[in-house]
Amino acid sequence: MSREAAKVTKDSTRSALLHAGARIIREKGYNHAGLQEILQISGVPKGSFYHFFASKEEFGLAIIASDTEAHNQEMERYFGDLSLSPLQRLRRYFEAKCEGFESLRCREGCLLGNLGQELADQNETFRLRIEAFFANWRSQLAVHLAEAQLAGEIPTHLEPNRLADFLVNSWEGALMQMKVRKDSTPLHIFMDLIFGTLLPTQQTKE
């Protein structure tokens, strides 16, 4: 096997483990995610797991890093669409997230939000990594909201950093209620109040 092929195989094995782990943690939580089930779903032998991760904690932190990277790419994709105004981009971003959770039949919720609720009082390392994720998310939203404000789409009395904090808090609360109710109504209420009342947007034609 060539060096390049070996690297692809190594990367795909690691990705399979992270994908399986994230799926199980979303459904059962970190403390109830068993290694045997992760190996069974990923199709990876036990020895390979310990080749990549020295412990379950290291594995969990790698899942956080992977989810953070995917979320950053998602924001870059939607916020980089210059065919739309800043506020329209923001709405499309949250619309896509709503569609994603509805496609999962309102299960799972936010991986980092779930982990925060479960582990913030149990593991300081996890808490700090999760806190960093949310701080980065709020920061990127604030930058985009400031751009929308400069474009005249957001009232000047709304401070972008506080507004970003409110959006994250409201969205995470809506996701929690969605999971409890097994219904997407909380997500639609979020969209209606944010983009219909607080930050009304002009809809573009498809």
Q: Gap between N and C termini, in Å?
A: 48 Å
The CATH class of the largest domain, by name, is Mainly Alpha
Q: Would you list the SSEs in sequence order as H and E?
A: HHHHHHHHH
List the quaternary state of the chains: single chain
Number of strands: 0
The radius of gyration computed from the alpha-carbon positions, rounded to a whole number of angstroms, is 19 Å
**Number of H/I helices:** 9
Low-confidence runs: 1-8
Outline, from the CA principal axes?
Answer: elongated
Major sheet attributes: none
Strand content: under 5%
Number of domains: 2
Question: What this model shows, in words?
Answer:
The protein is mainly α. The chain has two domains: 1-52, Arc Repressor Mutant, subunit A (Orthogonal Bundle), CATH 1.10.10; 61-198, Tetracycline Repressor, domain 2 (Orthogonal Bundle). It contains nine helices and no strands. It has helices at 3-28, 35-42, 46-52, 56-79, 86-103, 111-119, 124-150, 160-181, 185-198. Helix 4 runs parallel beside helix 7, helix 6 (111-119) packs across helix 7 and helix 8 packs antiparallel against helix 9. The relative contact order is 0.10. Mean pLDDT is 91; it is low at 1-8.
Keywords:
elongated; 0% strand; 2 domains; Arc Repressor Mutant, subunit A; 206 residues; mainly alpha; Tetracycline Repressor, domain 2
